[in-house]
Every structure is written in structure tokens, then in C-alpha cells.
Specification:
The chain is built from 8 helices and 16 strands. By secondary structure, it is of the alpha+beta class. It binds 2-oxoglutaric acid and fe (ii) ion.
Length: about 300
């Protein structure tokens, strides 16, 4: 069976059908990997992957990043529903991390080693809302004018999950869970060169909070302007999930966010994350005093 690859009407993304991700032969895998580098976002409708099949597919891309420090599970659930069937309430930590996902981000940019790719599949979807949206940071960089490029080419930003949660009013203490266990913050260039394609992209998002060389107000204005410019058509795609759909994206050049829904309805997704390559995704980690949960920056207080 030859996979059918149909480009999405945006600068990123393709839908792939006539493929069974649970049973990929070598030739088909090669086509999928090639499409991943070309489109950066691949939508596989109706795969109905088991946990093991999703892990098997994701594992072809590299080493897993384990997201639950207390377990070696390679696939984790991103869900607003607890095991007893009730849903998380606004005052609960997990609710706030789900709301945090509604801000444009790239996975694990706040970790010393940022992610390479993620696979997300839908298990239970709410009747309305709850889409996931992606934005192409390669096309966004290309679309910047020469002055803008010149202004950001040598800038870097600190990334911190404490700071991005603080921006939505969620003040977290050090050690509260995955991503909240460092005092140093990774410092990442605003412009990233893709290790495989060599294309430049904007590396920004909600976890970026301070840009050495700019004062906080300037940094926030620049980050906000870049995000607003970058994350708009024709560079975006929003997926209206059906249970069984699986989507893969390249965290090195794509931002994503969850779209809101009625949090009284269950939404259950399964997520698998592939670690970046230390040669290209490992950041220098600075001892920025505002990286931890105890000292949100003035503008976030
Ligand atoms: O729930 C979603 O739509 C996106 C969640 C997310 O940020 C992720 O899977 O990395
Ligand atoms: Fe994410």
C-alpha cells in the first residue's frame, strides 16, 4: 500500500492516508520521515493506535523523553478527567497546566534538552472546541523583513515553565512536577537552524520570558509582536479531532497550542514525546534568578 500524502492548505502540514502506523514497512517509514522533514506536521486520521503502537511509531524518531518522573511510561495522558470520572477544577494544578497548553509553545523548551517531536492522539473529544493548532516557524522567519531579521539574529531568550505558568496566574513552587525541577533556565537563540533541513526558524513561544540585552518591557513587546506576526494564516492549521486521529509534529520548527473547550466535558489525549539531539537541542543553562517558582518576574506578579 502506497501512502497518500496530501498537503494542507497552509505553509506547513500534510494529511497521510492509506497507511497503518502500527505496521510500517521500511519503504513507507522512509516516505513518512521524508514528509516529516518537508511538512513538519503530519495528520494521520483514524489510526486508532493502541498505547504500544503509538510508542512504537514515535520511537522510530529517537529516544523518548519521559514526562512522569515517577514512572517509565512513554505515552502519557493529557486529560482533564481523573480516574474516578470527575474533571479537574480551576484551583487544581493539572487544570492550570492544561490551560497553560492553550498558549503557543514548543514542547520542553524550558528543559535543558528541548524536544524533537511529539505524537498526540485523540481518545475522547468534547462536542465543541478542543482543537489543536500549529504554526510554522520556518515560514514565519522567512516572512520577516530584513530589519526584523537583523534585530533578532543574535538574540536569545531564557525559557521557563514557572514563568509561562505565572503569566496565566498560576504560581508554582519548585519541584511541583515535570519541568518544575530546575533552578537554571535554558537560554535559546531566537533563530534556530534545523539540524536536518538547514532551514532557519523562529524559536519563540510562551515559555520564553527574558531576553538578555533587552529590558523586560522591550523583551515582552518583541516576543508578543513576533508571536502575533508568526501565528497567523497562511502559517497555521487547526485540527478538529476525531477519536483515533494521530498527529506528529516537529518541535524544532513548529509551535502549537490547545484551543479552549468546556472543561466540564471530558477531553482525553495521548501524548508521546521524542527527545531532541544534544548536538542541536541542548541549551546552555544560565542561573537566572527568576527561573524558579519562588520569584516570578515583576511583570508577572
Ligand atoms: O491538548 C492539546 O491539544 C495540546 C497539548 C500539548 O501541548 C501537547 O500535546 O504537547
Ligand atoms: Fe505541547
Amino acid at each position: 500500500m502506497e501512502p497518500t500524502i496530501t498537503a494542507i492548505d497552509a505553509t506547513l502540514g500534510a494529511t497521510i492516508t492509506d497507511v497503518d502506523l502500527a505496521d510500517l514497512d521500511e519503504a513507507t517509514w522512509n516516505r513518512v520521515e521524508e514528509a516529516f522533514h518537508e511538512y513538519a506536521l503530519l495528520v494521520f486520521p483514524g489510526q486508532d493506535l493502541t498505547d504500544d503502537a503509538q510508542v512504537g511509531f514515535a520511537g522510530r524518531f529517537g529516544d523518548f523523553e519521559l514526562l512522569r518522573p515517577d514512572s517509565d511510561a512513554k505515552a502519557v495522558s493529557i486529560s482533564n478527567q481523573k480516574p474516578d470520572g470527575s474533571v479537574f477544577k480551576p484551583e487544581e494544578h493539572r487544570y492550570q497546566t492544561l490551560r497553560g497548553n492553550e498558549g503557543w509553545h514548543t514542547d520542553s523548551s524550558y528543559m535543558p534538552l528541548a524536544a524533537k517531536a511529539s505524537v498526540l492522539s485523540a481518545q475522547v473529544v468534547p462536542p465543541a472546541g478542543g482543537e489543536t493548532e500549529w504554526a510554522d516557524m520556518r515560514a514565519a522567519y522567512d516572512a520577516l523583513d530584513k530589519d526584523r531579521k537583523g534585530r533578532i539574529d543574535d538574540l536569545s531568550a531564557y525559557h521557563s515553565l514557572y514563568q509561562s505558568q505565572a503569566k496565566i496566574g498560576h504560581i508554582v513552587e519548585t519541584g511541583a512536577g515535570y519541568g518544575y525541577h530546575t533552578k537554571g533556565a535554558p537560554l535559546r537563540p531566537l533563530v534556530k537552524t534545523h539540524p536536518v533541513t538547514g532551514r532557519k526558524s523562529l524559536f519563540i513561544g510562551r515559555h520564553a520570558y527574558r531576553i538578555p540585552g533587552l529590558d523586560d518591557a522591550e523583551a515582552q513587546e518583541l516576543s508578543g509582536d513576533l508571536l502575533a506576526f508568526a501565528c497567523q494564516p497562511p502559517r497555521t492549521y487547526a485540527h478538529d479531532w476525531r477519536p483515533g486521529d494521530a498527529i506528529l509534529w516537529d518541535n524544532r520548527c513548529v509551535l502549537h497550542r490547545a484551543r479552549p473547550y468546556d472543561y466540564r466535558q471530558a477531553r482525553i489525549m495521548r501524548h508521546t514525546r521524542i527527545a531532541g539531539d544534544p548536538a542541536s537541542e541542548l541549551a546552555t543553562t544560565g542561573r537566572d534568578e527568576r527561573a524558579s517558582g519562588f520569584a516570578p518576574s515583576a511583570s508577572n506578579r
